[in-house]
């Protein structure tokens, strides 16, 4: 019997003081307000109870250093779903930016699933350029290197399977080795895009995000993430507050369940109802 995973978005931080110019290249309304939210994602097997974490978020120290207020540590936030960080055995790290790989050591028994291209990029000559280095934190990258030496990193070169019904797919664009996650749910195949599309507007209107290493890869990635999903509402962007308007809240209001039916899906208009 195939595994049908439950999928949850867990919000742990939000920045209100952000504009459309911070989020899109060449947006006509560059001064318009556009908040951004920060998520990790949890996949749960309802039969076995196994949980897979997608990304680790960042902690209070990084929040203070970056000036991005944190509402709760991601490792504490996922406990609202009955998930103990020490029982997590697999973490998919979509890329090594500070807000996706900033709490690696909060999951002491996990293996980290990462694209080869991302480690090469984060430790290579591109990091001599300040603008490319900016979203990385050296301590986080060094933590991942230490995990390589302790045998806790699983590398992929493109597509790969993490577990039955959970696969990773190298997208690139925003970061050289950015990967999206495809997961089989009761609603069909879901694509947790992470930063392959920060907002619904990025992929639906083919509007690149401002932080990008390869614009062509990013634009191609917008098409890829839609092909990976069985239906439009099953593409989950990485930072869009609209996600919490579309999907129902569970576990205290900062967790939203994603593997549910959605009616009237219109993220660029009035949202949707579950």
Count of separate DSSP helical elements: 9
SS-derived structural category:
alpha/beta
Strand order in the largest sheet: 6-5-4-3-2-1-13-12
Q: Return residue spans where pLDDT drops below 50 for at least 5 consecutive residues.
A: none
- N-to-C SSE string, H for helix and E for strand: EHEEHHEEHHHEEEEEHHEHEEEE
Quickly describe the structure.
This protein has 9 helices and 15 strands. By secondary structure, the protein is α/β, with parallel strands linked by helices.
Could you walk me through the main structural features you see in this protein, from its secondary elements to its overall organization?
- The chain is an alpha/beta fold and 274 residues long.
- Helix content is 23%, strand content 27%.
- It contains 9 helices and 15 strands.
- It has helices spanning 20-23, 60-66, 74-77, 116-122, 130-133, 138-149, 200-204, 215-228, 242-246, and strands at residues 6-15, 36-44, 51-54, 90-92, 111-115, 153-156, 160-163, 166-170, 179-185, 188-194, 235-237, 249-250, 255-257, 263-266, 271-273.
- It has an 8-stranded mixed sheet.
- The two termini are 27 Å apart.
């Amino acid at each position: 019997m195939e595994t049908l995973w439950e999928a949850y978005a867990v919000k742990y931080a939000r920045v209100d003081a952000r504009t459309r110019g911070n989020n899109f290249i060449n947006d006509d309304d560059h001064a318009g307000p556009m908040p951004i939210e920060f998520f990790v994602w949890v996949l749960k097997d309802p039969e076995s109870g196994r949980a897979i974490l997608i990304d680790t978020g960042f902690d209070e120290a990084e929040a203070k250093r970056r000036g991005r207020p944190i509402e709760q540590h991601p490792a504490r936030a996922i406990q609202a779903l009955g998930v103990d960080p020490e029982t997590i055995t697999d973490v998919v790290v979509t890329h090594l930016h500070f807000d996706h790989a900033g709490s690696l050591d909060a999951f002491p028994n996990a293996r980290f699933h990462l694209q080869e291209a991302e480690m090469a990029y984060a430790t290579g000559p591109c990091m001599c350029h300040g603008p490319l280095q900016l979203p990385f934190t050296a301590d986080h990258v060094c933590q991942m290197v230490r995990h390589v030496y302790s045998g806790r990193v699983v590398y992929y070169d493109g597509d790969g399977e993490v577990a039955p019904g959970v696969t990773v797919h190298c997208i690139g664009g925003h970061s050289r080795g950015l990967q999206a996650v495809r997961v089989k749910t009761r609603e069909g195949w879901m694509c947790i895009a992470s930063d392959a599309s920060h907002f619904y507007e990025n992929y639906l209107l083919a509007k690149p995000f401002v932080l990008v290493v390869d614009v062509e890869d990013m634009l191609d990635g917008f098409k890829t993430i839609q092909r990976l999903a069985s239906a439009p509402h099953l593409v989950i962007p990485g930072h869009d507050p609209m996600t919490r308007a579309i999907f129902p809240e569970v576990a205290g209001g900062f967790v939203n369940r994603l593997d549910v039916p959605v009616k009237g899906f219109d993220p660029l208009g009035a949202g949707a109802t579950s």
